[in-house]
């Protein structure tokens, strides 16, 4: 059974809005520290691992 790249894109579309929502509430500090990108990467890894 082949892995579906489309499934990965769906995950990204679900993760990015959530990360941006947290980003708006937490403020610009996380953008400077790069925690936003790190958090999105961790979430993607967890979702793929659970699958």
Summarize the structure in words:
The protein is an all-alpha fold. The chain has one domain. 84% of the residues lie in helices and 0% in strands. The chain has 3 helices and no strands. α1 runs antiparallel to α3 (35-50). The chain starts with a helix and ends with a helix. 0% of the residues are buried. The model has no long low-confidence stretch (mean pLDDT 58).
| Rg from alpha-carbon coordinates | 13 Å
The total strand number stands at 0
Unreliable residue runs: none
The coarse silhouette is rod-shaped
SS strand fraction: under 5%
Helix and strand pattern = HHH
* Share of residues in helices: over 70%
Assign the structural class, choosing from mainly alpha, mainly beta, alpha/beta, alpha+beta, or little secondary structure.
Answer: mainly alpha
- Counting structural domains, the number is 1
Q: How widely separated are the two ends?
A: 14 Å
Assembly status = single chain
- Give the count of helical stretches: 3
Mean pLDDT over the residues = 58
Largest sheet, in brief, is: none
């Amino acid at each position: 059974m082949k892995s579906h790249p489309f499934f990965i894109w769906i995950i990204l579309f679900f993760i990015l809005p959530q990360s941006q929502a947290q980003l708006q509430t937490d403020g610009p500090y996380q953008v400077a520290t790069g925690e936003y990108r790190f958090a999105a990467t961790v979430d993607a890894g967890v979702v793929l691992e659970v699958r």
